[in-house]
What does this fold into?
Amino acid sequence: MDYFSLVGIAVGLSMDALAASVANGTAVRKVTPGFALKVGLTFGLFQAFMPCLGWALGTAGANLLIHIEHWLALLLLTYLGTQMIWESCFGEHAKEARCHTVGKRALLIQAVATSIDALATGIILPSSVGIQSVPQMIFSVSLIGIITLVLCFAGVYLGRKFGCLLSGRAEIAGGIILILIGIKIFAEHLLTSA
It folds into this structure.
């Protein structure tokens, strides 16, 4: 098994989740270890589960997924980002403190949207890093989940630091980050399929 490639894949897959975690950190009033752990665990679990699902789907589902995953990510993240910006500017508490808590629904949508590429990766993961058994696959997806958890946990705190610097505009910055992640995923797909 190629551990170096596996770590590279794990870090690469976690980058969108890390960026979303930074956005979440900018959007909350106060970051606690419990909140950062909730964000890290949510993203980590989805990043670990989706390659398993992709592996199970195998090549039968690969063609459909390749054609829609970039659209799903773009639509979900643009929706969430736009909602954050709208709430910051026109929501009930727009005149008060602009920071809020990140709800379970928003966090789950972010986790799904940022882990769709992990689903596609699961289809090719065994051949790309030399996985030859189920225990190796379990180890691989566990490593992906743990790396994502750690990076996202830190990302929430990093986002909070940015949020303090941005003061009242933190939620707008978080929304813009989510929209840019969606555009990046969409553009990467278009560039690699051309």
Remarks:
- Residues 3-193 form one domain.
- Residues 58 and 141 are 16 Å apart (CA to CA).
